[in-house]
Amino acid sequence: MGAADATLTQAIERVTARFSAQVQFILDGQFAFWIGSGISRERFPDLKELLLRLLQELHTRSNFSDDTCLWRQCLHRVLELVHVSLDTTRQRDIPADWPDIDRLLDLLVDNYSDVLDNPVYVGTTPHSLSLDVLGLGSIYGDETTEPDAEHRLLALLIEEGIVAEIVSANWDPLIERAHEEARDGQPSELQVVVRAADIDGTVRTRLTKIHGCARRLRCDPVTWRDHMIATTTEIQNWVSSPDRAPVRELIRTTLRQKPALFLGLSVQDWNLQLELLKAFSDLEPPLPIDPPRALFAESELRQPQRTVLRHIHGEDYARQPNDVEENATLDLYGKPLLGSLFLLTLLAKVRAIASSEDEAPIVDWMPFLLDAIDDWGQLRVRTFRRAGRPGRFQRCVEESRR
């Protein structure tokens, strides 16, 4: 069994056996969900593919016989970030044919915000590598891209009242689209926050998009272009701009008020690291370890996650890192984890109905219902992958409501 391909039975057994207190806390609606690109990886190109596209585009636009060509100079600056020269071979051959392209892309991925921080001026007009050259707004705002299983399961958990606070580093609107489908024509109850003016404390469920929204950008490029965050300079502006202060404080408040479940989010962006540090720097230790303040839908912790734990727990983490880390990873990725949470939610509903005096006749059906849920649990996660098909997802919504 792996973190990505566990059957739902295996996933349920794991989370209930090893993390029963944490899972119950999640099912009680007490966790905030922090979402990253990992839940959309099967819907959009990954960073390596995007950076290869960028190299190809810069290479195509470059005039290598002209030392003053701005596109050539931009390509040179990008390669220089990882100490690679724009030699004769690289000028002659397209980037896809460079013999070290895989290694080069790996290096660029680790520096992607600096790579994109190289606008090219055509006359007096700056061309953004992320928006004007790569067209990230068009890629991530494409309305024909269907939500994946993770987005649809999140939408179902929102409908069940399990998820009320979501913070996302993603540009795409797939959570919003899945939520709209789950509402089945009813008004949306999801407040999407990109800027301070969006904050409204009266709504039921909030999705804070800290790096911008491609859907809004496509609808109104003039208003929302400056809210798309991809480059080092844009991240620095997000951290320091007074206009972003209310959103920054909303994020810190969310961190203080609710434990965090990180799904598909590496937490390596330094602006997130800074907000975590500021959120917990003035809290009196020790913070509780069980249930933990941070849970990761990962198979193992890496340095960015350890940095998060250090920001949260301070000296307590330094004294007992093994105890903190042992309780911090669920050893499951998004699909099996969210699938197991949804089935556990349905099971809890069935049991609640069976114990209700108003629904006493259903007690006779309990063995059948529990067996049916066990049968569902035997299905592999690929079943939930099919939730990407709108008709199948709609049946999931209807069954959940029944």
Sketch the major β-sheet: 6 strands, parallel
Number of DSSP helices? 23
Class of the largest domain, according to the CATH hierarchy?
Alpha Beta
Q: Which geometry do the CA atoms define?
A: globular
In whole angstroms, the N-to-C terminal distance is 32 Å
Instruction: Write the CATH architecture name of the largest domain.
Output: 3-Layer(aba) Sandwich
What is the oligomer described by this structure? single chain
**Helicity level, as a percent range?**
40-55%
Question: Reading side by side through the largest sheet, how are the strands ordered?
Answer: 5-6-4-1-7-8
List segments where confidence is low: pLDDT < 50 over at least 5 consecutive residues. Answer: none
Could you say how many structural domains there are in total? 3
* Radius of gyration from CA coordinates: 23 Å
Proportion of residues in extended strands: 5-15%
What is the number of beta strands?
8
Kindly report the average pLDDT value.
85
Return the CATH topology of the largest domain: Rossmann fold
User: Which structural class do you get from the secondary structure elements?
Assistant: alpha/beta
